[in-house]
Amino acid sequence: MATLQSAFQEYWPHLAFVLSLAVGGTAAVHAAMTKNDVRAAIGWVGVILMSPLLGPLVYLIAGINRIRHDHMSEQRYKAENDYSRVLGAPAADISAIDAPQFRSLKVLGDRVSHFSLLDGNHVRTLLGGDQTYPAMLEAIQGAQRTIALQSYIFDDDSEGRKIVDALVEARDRGVEIRVLIDAIGSKYSHPPIIRRLRKQGIPCALFMTNPLGFLRMPYANLRSHRKILVVDGRIGFTGGMNIRAGFVTEVAGAETTGDTHFQVEGPVVVQLMGVFAHDWKFTTREALPYDTWCSDTRPAGAPGVPARCIRSGPDRYIVGTHNMLLGAFAVAQHHIRIQSPYFLPDQILLGAINTAARRGIVVDIVIPGRNNLRLVNYAMFAQLDQVVRNGCRVWRTTGNFNHSKLITIDGCWSYVGSSNMDPRSLRLNFELDMEVYSRDTARDIEMMIDKEIVQAEAVTLEGLAAIPFRKRLRNRVIWLASPYL
C-alpha cells in the first residue's frame, strides 16, 4: 500500500495529464461530430481544448442535448396519430387574403409544422394581463370537462393564486386538470406555485426537472417556454404572456409590463392541445386521449380564418420558427413589422432581414427602451448597427417594458406566440407559435406596433457611434455570450 501511495504521489501529474487528454479528446470529438452549427462546434472544441478538465465538465452540463431525439420523436409520433386529425375541419384557402406571395409560405409551413393549415378559426387579440387573465379565468370557471395549462413562469402571487383558486373550483366540479410548468420558470416565484398546486391536489408537473438522470437539478438550457391554456378542447389561449402580477395595472400600476396574448376557437385549438399532450406525456409518461381532451365542435358566427401551430425546440422540430421566419422575410413584398423584447437574430436571419430591406421592403423593428434583462439589452445594441446600416428602421419604445413577440408581413400574415428572436428561443427552448392568414388580425397587430412607433425613438448609426467606447466594448463582450443569455 505504501509503495502504491508513493508511486501515485510521484506520477499523479502524468496520470492527470493522460486523464485530461482522454476526457478532453472524447468531449472535443463529440462536439465536432454532433454540432451542426460550425460556430457552436468551434466554440465548444475551443473551450474543451483550452481547459481539458474544466471544459469537458462545462460541456457535459451545458453543451449536450440530452433529449433523446429517437425516444422523444417516437412518443410524439404516436400522439400525433390522434392529435393531427381534426374531424370535419376545412382545409385552408388563403386566396381570400388576395396575396399570392403567401402560397409558397403555406407550402413551407406544411413541411415545417407537421400540422395542417386549417380554416374556421376565430382569433381574438388580448392586451396585457388586464384583458388576458379575466378571459382565462372566465374560460376556466366555465369548464365542464377538461383544463390543460402550460406556462414557462407561473408565479405564486395575486394573479397566480386567482388561477389556482379557479382550478380548484373546477376540480371540485369534476373537471379533469393538468398543469405543466417549466422547472426553471417555476423558480421565479418564492415559494414556487407548484407547492400550492400539489397541496390543493391539482395534477401538475415540472418540465425537464432531472434530465441528467443522476443530478437532481433542472437543465437550464432546455426550457419549455410555451404558454398554453385549453379548456374543454374548445377554447384555447396562447401567446407571449406568463402568469404573473406584473402584467396587471391594478397591481403593478405605473410599472405594468405590456404583452399580447390570443384567445382562439376552432381546429387550431386541437393543435394547441396536441402540443400540450406531447409535453405532458414526455414529462409524466401519461397519455391524454384525444376523445377526452379535444372537441370537434366548431365556433358559431362569422367565418373563421386559416391558422396553425408551429412548434420549435431542441428535438425533431429544431429551427421550425427559424425556417418559417426565413420564408416569411423572403416572400415579403411591401412591409415587415417586428416587435421583439429580445432582438438577437443570428447571422442567417440578419441576412434575410437585411436582404428584404435592400429589396426595398419597409422593415420596422420595435425593441424596448427599458428592458427587463440588462445583459440582453447590451447584447442587442452590439449588433443593431447591422440592420440600421442596411436600411431597416429600428425603434426604441419610450413607455413601459413590452414583452410582446409579434411579426406581420404585408398586412396579411401574422406570426405570434412565445418565440423571441434570439438564439435561446430559436435553438434551445421549446417554443410554440401560431401563424394566421388574416387581414383583420394583421391589422390589429400592426395598429399596436404602429402605436408604439409613434412614441418611440429612432435608432441611428450616429446615435450608436456616440455611445462611449467602454460601453460599446462591454456590449460586444456580452454579445459574444448571447446564445446563453
From TrEMBL:
<dbReference type="GO" id="GO:0005886">
    <property type="term" value="C:plasma membrane"/>
</dbReference>
<protein>
    <submittedName>
        <fullName>Cardiolipin synthase</fullName>
    </submittedName>
</protein>
<feature type="transmembrane region" description="Helical">
    <location>
        <begin position="41"/>
        <end position="62"/>
    </location>
</feature>
<feature type="domain" description="PLD phosphodiesterase">
    <location>
        <begin position="398"/>
        <end position="425"/>
    </location>
</feature>
<keyword id="KW-1133">Transmembrane helix</keyword>
<keyword id="KW-0472">Membrane</keyword>
<dbReference type="GO" id="GO:0008808">
    <property type="term" value="F:cardiolipin synthase activity"/>
</dbReference>
<dbReference type="Pfam" id="PF13091">
    <property type="entry name" value="PLDc_2"/>
</dbReference>
<keyword id="KW-0812">Transmembrane</keyword>
<dbReference type="Pfam" id="PF13396">
    <property type="entry name" value="PLDc_N"/>
</dbReference>
<dbReference type="InterPro" id="IPR027379">
    <property type="entry name" value="CLS_N"/>
</dbReference>
<dbReference type="InterPro" id="IPR001736">
    <property type="entry name" value="PLipase_D/transphosphatidylase"/>
</dbReference>
<dbReference type="GO" id="GO:0032049">
    <property type="term" value="P:cardiolipin biosynthetic process"/>
</dbReference>
<dbReference type="InterPro" id="IPR025202">
    <property type="entry name" value="PLD-like_dom"/>
</dbReference>
<keyword id="KW-1003">Cell membrane</keyword>
<feature type="domain" description="PLD phosphodiesterase">
    <location>
        <begin position="220"/>
        <end position="247"/>
    </location>
</feature>
